Amino acid sequence: MSWSKYMVMAAQHSKNNAQHWFRYLRKDITKCGITFTKEEMESLCKNELLTPFQRVSLKVAFEDNSLTRQYIIGLNRKVTPSKLAEVRAKCENTD
User: Fold this and answer.
1) What pLDDT is recorded for position 95?
2) What is the band of 20 on the pLDDT scale with cuts at 50, 70, 90?
3) Gap between the Cα atoms of 51 and 53, Å rounded
4) Domain range spanning residue 16?
5) Please, are residues 30 and 55 in contact by the beta-carbon 8 Å criterion?
6) Residue 9: Cβ within 10 Å count
7) Taking the alpha carbons of 59, 62, 67, 88 in that order, is the dihedral positive or negative?
8) What is the distance between the alpha carbons of residues 12 and 24, in angstroms, rounded to a whole number?
9) Which residues 6+ apart lie within 8 Å of 9 measured at CB?
10) Which pLDDT score, from 0 to 100, does residue 75 have?
């Protein structure tokens, strides 16, 4: 299955769930780069099976320093004990 067909299938599967869509995008967007070309992304954005939200988020996720891309990269990141302690400390300070 080609990347474009896979992403169309993913778009249809996650049509009403942005979180699922971002998780599909995360499989193709890593800290090191994007596994598809800009031309493939542009042709996918023209596909009628994607919702307007999916098209926009795909375009923004392609930009290097966008908040959407940073969010997608951060999905399912393992929590370290020090990070967990930091979050607990913040919660205790707000009580």
Assistant:
1) 53
2) confident
3) 5
4) 3-94
5) no
6) 13
7) positive
8) 11
9) 1
10) 80
DSSP string, the chain: --HHHHHHHHHHHTTT-HHHHHHHHHHHB-SS-BSS-HHHHHHHHT-TTS-HHHHHHHHHHTSTT-HHHHHHHHTTPPPPHHHHHHHHHHHHHH-
Half-sphere exposure of 3 toward its Cβ, with a 13 Å CA cutoff? 15
Give me 73's structure tokens.
């990269």
Token pair for 55: 């098209």
Tens digit of pLDDT for each residue in 23-68?
Answer: 888 877 775 566 677 788 888 888 899 999 998 888 888 787 888 8
**Looking at the 3D structure of the chain, how many domains does it have?**
1
- CA 7 to chain CA centroid, Å, is 12
